[in-house]
Design brief:
60s Ribosomal Protein L30, Chain: A; alpha+beta; 50% helix; 4 strands; four-stranded mixed β-sheet; globular; 112 residues
Length: 112
Amino acid sequence: MPKELVGKVYEAVSLAKTTGTVRKGVNETTKTIERGLAKLVVMAEDVTPEEVLMHLPVLCEEKQVPYAYVPSKLELGKSAGIEVQTSSIAIESEGDAKKLIADLAGKLKGLK
């Protein structure tokens, strides 16, 4: 992920947290994708073992949900409004981040 996009991803998560709905953790993220409610999925790169997140990109591709990676699960947790780290989040309702998420989705599509 390019650094300028990482900053925008954290910003989108923060905005969605305050004005929309964000689901935190692998289980909640998986359920949100499967139910077709996810608008954007964000995963941390420093998750060990990596197998914990391996199914999420496949699900996102299947359900046509944009997804992004960020370098730190601690920073992802902070931007999602929790004081602990989280390996993944799903934005269910964008709130004020709707335009930013639409812009990110277009850029993320171009990276694949």
